[in-house]
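Supplementary Text 2. Reproducibility record for the structural model of the 315-residue chain.

All settings were left at their defaults, and a single model was retained for analysis rather than an ensemble. We include the record here because the model underlies the residue-level annotations in Supplementary Table 4.
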Amino acid sequence: MRYFFRLLLSALVVLSSCRKEIEIDFPEMEIKPVVNCLFSPNNHFNINISLSKNSIDTFTYNVENAEVTISGNDGTFFELQHHGGGNYLSDQAFPQAGIVYTLKVNIPDMEKVSATGSIPLNSSVVTEIESKAGHKTEAVMGTGEKARIPVQNLKVKILHNPQESDFMGLSIVRYALTYHRVNDSIFVVENKSKFYYGYLNSDDPAILSEGLGNFYTYQMLLFRDINFTEQPATVRFNVEKEKPSKFWLRFFNFSPEAFQYVKSWFIHEYTQDYDFWEVYEPQPLYSNIENGYGIFAGYSMQLYEVYPDSTLTFE
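Retained model, structure tokens:
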């Protein structure tokens, strides 16, 4: 036994002597401006400007000394001022659909940054929303069982222009739920001071064709009218709904640039997490910023109040 422990000790010494520290030289990152603005009607331009940073850096380098202007092809011109936190805005700068805007950012000792963007003008519109109570089954991890989950099944009819390319999205907003236990009973109450994005699921071909099926976004479904086969088109999905009460449907019309950015963000966010069973290459975010990173693009959004087991029609 004493011989065994001597042998084990010798092996540990040998193994420890095999350790060697290796220094890895990573390429030096080029510092560029990061400019972000997704704009919509009735909300003024708000441009956030910072500097790029290392992935392990927890500090945000906000830019506070930039000259920021926005000009439209309709002759409009705005100068935006810094309002703290790298945010540049003007109370007079409200974007309008159909106008092409050019953003210019001048930061001392850096290349000038520019981008163009617009809000879609001739966009698809919702003509009907049908909501019906139902259930879906979902596997319970590690048990071999399937849970029966209450949902609202939705059908959204969309009138679109076959001559135009429209880029769309759907999401659900509802009040957050709070659970109260009284004795052996649990009561579900809607917290009307908090909003919550609904957990969405769909097997609609127009949605699945975007290739996001493996990147569970849950909060928004993206699709294009290029995949529609009827007029008006019908998009089908469901949202988990533990309590039968009203909710709100958000229907988005994106510019092509905004659509690409949101789509790349879903994949980018999903691939940031490491999973033993799924290993992905990090997905870079789409950018249309010249001499920098980020996004300058427009969208519009319509909000519809929906009740369970109801049908809404719009002209």
